[in-house]
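note to self — DONT lose this again. spent like an hour looking for the file last time. sequence + predicted structure for the chain T wanted, 86 res
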Amino acid sequence: MAIHPDDPPMPLLGLPRVVSCESDVQHLLAAVDSPHNGLTFCGGSFVESDHLDGDVDMFRIVRTFAREAARRQRDGDAAALAVKSP
């Protein structure tokens, strides 16, 4: 199961956001140690959203993704990082 980062990362119609910052992501992924617990990596959430005003460090995000892939390979973690291109 994967969750899509909140877009927009702010309350909408009075509903609280679930994943709107890095600590939210870390908390969610640490909640259940399972290869089926994941985060959807959607670049559009970061670069196509006017409300972010270019304040998202895409290099840091991609670097974090790459480090996780390397950690999984190093640790023999069979859980794949699924990547889908358009």
